Amino acid sequence: MFAVYAAEPNAQDPLAALRIGERPEPEVPDGWVRVAIRAASLNMHDLWTLRGVGIKPDRFPMILGCDGAGVLDDGTEVMLHSVISDPGWVGDETMDPKRTLLTEKHQGTFADHVVVPARNVLPKPAGLSFAEAACMGTAWLTAYRMLFVKSGLRPGQTMLVQGASGGVSTALIALGRAAGFRVWVTGRSERKRALAERLGAHAAFETGARLPERVDAVFETVGKATWSHSMKSLKPGGIIVVSGATSGGDADAELSRLFFLQMRVVGATMGTRDELADLLRFCELSGVRPVIGTELPLERAEEGFRAMLAGETAGKTVFTR
Ligand SMILES: NC(=O)c1ccc[n+]([C@@H]2O[C@H](COP(=O)([O-])OP(=O)(O)OC[C@H]3O[C@@H](n4cnc5c(N)ncnc54)[C@H](OP(=O)(O)O)[C@@H]3O)[C@@H](O)[C@H]2O)c1
After folding, report:
1. How much distance in Å is there from the Cα of 24 to the middle of ligand 1?
2. Which residue from 43, 188, 221 has its CB within 8 A of the most atoms of ligand 1, so it is best to mutate?
3. Ligand 1 nearest-atom number relative to CA 317
4. Residue nearest to atom 2 of ligand 1 (CA)
5. What phi and psi, each to the nearest 5 degrees, are found at residue 195?
6. Are residues 129 and 231 in the same domain?
7. What PANTHER family does the record point to (predicted)?
8. Which of 72, 137, 197, 261 lies at 20 to 30 Å from 320 by C-alpha?
9. Residue 279 lies in a domain
């Protein structure tokens, strides 16, 4: 079948590991289902996979793509929850020590077909296109958990999103605005800050700029490049929710500030199947829809990877079949 995959890990030149070609059709184990992919979205996670981060070397070649939406063999339209937990695991799937995301152990969605455990598909809401549904399982689910499960923010309070144009950042902006938070954003260019304001941010600032006042919560996926600004921008007792470290994870923790101002730092990763169902309902009730900056046929996936590597995204990048 047609697929976009990582041939081997390449830490220095991730795009050199990218292949567009043929891979074997997957077998369908008992209790699993086959999904004919109609749309799949690109995540930074796919660039980490090409670099060999978070995946064992003997797992290559690996079809990329954590998210997707498509059609079961019986014609049912579905979307994926890509956190695959151990069959015996009960409760929050993200807490299972044996859980994997699609593309860490099992082949991903940038292909004609993907196979997943039956519990990892949800009915695609009629109000979402395949492309929109394909954005939900990773970036949007992670943003939902950061905002509504981890942060403890109340409507009316102020949130800061570090980064304006990324998949998780644009989801945080749109969801935060719809939930009644005051949404402040930092972005690296005028174009990106304008995008944030179009999506509902109340104000967008240059990366690292001093804010008019300190905020109740900061949402971090950037890491080292913005960490110090996040710490300095937070009110005493405030919270930083972290789900990524694109620019590096080795920032100075600034422990003196942390304890003296009684700040909280909380990690977040993906979300549960139930939270994904709640996210879909929230979007239906609020009218919020994923922000898709680029839609390309899967054959042209390399263009999307290049743009993400260069930091030239404007929301989600979606590949269609
Ligand atoms: N824990 C989880 O479950 C989970 C889930 C999803 C994503 N993540 C992680 O979250 C991160 C973002 O993922 P994504 O898919 O949203 O990626 P993306 O679409 O490529 O977005 C990258 C974002 O990072 C910002 N950024 C990058 N480098 C920066 C720098 N040096 N200074 C300031 N801002 C910078 C960009 O801000 P500008 O708009 O200003 O350029 C942009 O908003 C990745 O590290 C990913 O692995 C984790």
Report:
1. 32
2. 221
3. 19
4. 269
5. -60, -45
6. no
7. DEHYDROGENASE, PUTATIVE (AFU_ORTHOLOGUE AFUA_2G13270)-RELATED, PTHR45033
8. 197
9. no
Q: What is the pLDDT of residues 201-248, one digit of tens each?
A: 999 999 999 999 999 999 999 999 999 999 999 999 999 999 999 999
Residue 121 bridge partners (DSSP)? 80
Closest approach atom of ligand 1 to CA 192: 39
Residue 10, pLDDT score: 98
Mean pLDDT of the chain: 98
163 contact partners, CB below 8 Å, separation of at least 6: 169, 185, 186, 187, 188, 221, 222, 226, 246
Taking CB atoms and a 6 Å cutoff, what residues make up the pocket around ligand 1? 43-45, 48, 138-139, 142, 163-169, 187-188, 192, 207, 221-222, 225-226, 243-247, 269-270, 308, 311, 313
Does 235 share its domain with 129? Answer: no
Count of domains observed in the chain: 2
| pLDDT tens sequence across 95-119 | 999 999 999 999 999 999 999 999 9
pTM of the model: 0.98
Element (H, E) at 77: strand 77-80
- Check which CATH number belongs to the domain holding 202 and give it: 3.40.50.720
Q: Are residues 64 and 113 in the same domain?
A: yes
Q: Tell me, yes or no, whether 123 and 104 share the same domain.
A: yes
Q: For 140-181, what is each residue's pLDDT tens digit?
A: 999 999 999 999 999 999 999 999 999 999 999 999 999 999
